[in-house]
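Standup notes, structure subgroup. Blocker cleared on the D-gluconic acid input:
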Amino acid sequence: MSFEPKKEDHFTTGLWCTAFNGREVFGTPVRPPLDPMDNIRGLARIGCYGFAYHDDDLVPFGSSTSERDRIVSEAKRVMDGEGIRNTMATCNLFEQPVFKDGAFTSNDVRIRSFAVQKSLKAIDLGAELGANTYVMWGGREGLEVEASKNPVESVKRYREAVEFLAHYIQDQGYGMRIAIEPKPNEPRGDIFLATIGHVLAFISTLDASIRDVVGVNPEIQHSRMAGMNTVHEVAQALEMGKLYHFDLGAQKPTRYDQDLRFGSEDIKESFFIVKLLEDHSWSGPRHFDVKPYRPDSVEEVFDLVAGCMRSYLVLRDKVERFNNDSEIQGMIRELEVCDDDLSTMTRSYSRGSAGALKERSFPLQEMAERKLGYQRLDQLVFDLLTGAR
Ligand code: GCO
Ligand code: MN
Ligand code: MN
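Run returned:
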């Protein structure tokens, strides 16, 4: 079994992942800056299908239009030469001092407008480089001082910005889709649109004419920071047709955002995430949003991405084994009890079906005593994942 990534596996990562220099609150950078073009080349050479970036990762904040254009043509040349695509674009609305208290939810209308302006340009940049997904992560959209913002007004302001950008994308005919990325906290004490559920609910309140443009970009780490069952959260987005992008990585629950290598923490959860995506033939890229360890050398930042791809492929192979394991599949089949009469009666409401259901009697004791075999089932999963099976 070879676990070498192929282009058709659609693996992607963010330029900011490999370019992360190790800077954090307690320490200075530990690695020199990585040139964006070398970054793109490096990712192509380890087998990535595509890459993502924040506007400022590629075109430094404050660049002139001619400098921007020069960078764009150089990026296109590198992409063509290396056979790698730009799959996702996003806008950095968290780093510059002007965004210290939020972008779309700032109390200052000038900052809100500047944030929209910067986003419009980031969308244009993405369209020019071929990105079909535009991620919105509102890292600074939150607060520490509860009295400082009206939380109801903040949601309205957030909606106004999302709708404005979605209309712009539609009006330009870019065919791009927006994916909003939730996170409960960090860098703010509390961030608005904290979980996948919040984003899905928010989307249902958007102007109907652009609602299809907007979906969710869950991140495993953020979901685990919020103490959620990531598989269930993501499954709900997928079932609603709203899983527009997905940031894969690893995380110990309820801590700061660790952005660890995919598969490096809860292997069973990672397995069920891969199973979810593969069983439903999810069409999005297998995207990693991860950070190198601080002790990593310059070369090891690419080992991080190569490792994520390998771990994904190992788990994908396990999914195939799970789906072809006759004992496991037999047990899963037996869990399902079918009765066509009952299914018809409860599928959709009618007065007749409600009446018939009220008359129906059930063998409660037999139903309650049915053996489900979960001890065995979980053991089989464990054995399969650890190679004991
Ligand atoms: C984080 C975020 C970011 C975003 C990225 C896209 O680690 O908190 O996930 O990595 O995904 O900035 O806007
Ligand atoms: Mn993260
Ligand atoms: Mn992310």
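Discussed briefly. Strands lie at 11-14, 50-54, 85-90, 133-137, 142-143, 177-181, 190-191, 214-216, 247-248, 286-288.
Next: hand off to the docking folks.
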